[in-house]
Amino acid sequence: MKKLSRKELFSHVESLLGQYCEGCFVHQQFKKEGGRRVAHRFCISQCTVGEKLQEYGKRLT
């Protein structure tokens, strides 16, 4: 994968969050049924967008 600057990585993260995560029905449903912690765990461990965000996070450090 191409080496991106920190600014470009943050831009990619912001676009992913804005495009997919804001108003996510799955997140809202999990939050309603199991609480905020269950919804967050889903986003981190099972959601493909969450996995991509983690990949960007690892590249920032």
Explain this structure to me?
- The structure is a single chain.
- By secondary structure, this protein is mainly alpha-helical.
- It is 80% helix and 0% strand.
- It has helices spanning 6-21, 25-34, 36-45, 48-60.
- Helix 2 crosses helix 3.
- The radius of gyration is 13 Å and the shape is elongated.
- The model has no long low-confidence stretch (mean pLDDT 93).
What key phrases describe this protein's structure?
single chain, mainly alpha, 61 residues, elongated
Order of helices and strands: HHHH
By helix and strand content, what is the structural category?
mainly alpha
- Mean pLDDT across residues: 93
Kindly state the number of beta strands.
Answer: 0
Outline the low-pLDDT stretches.
none
User: What does the overall shape look like?
Assistant: elongated
Radius of gyration: 13 Å
Distance, first to last CA? 16 Å
What fraction strand? under 5%
The DSSP helix count reads 4
User: Main β-sheet, in a few words?
Assistant: none
The proportion of residues forming helix, as a percent range, comes to over 70%
Concise overview:
This protein is mostly helical. The chain has helices at 6-21, 25-34, 36-45, 48-60.
Topology summary:
Elements: H1 6-21, H2 25-34, H3 36-45, H4 48-60
Helix pairs in contact: 1-4, 2-3
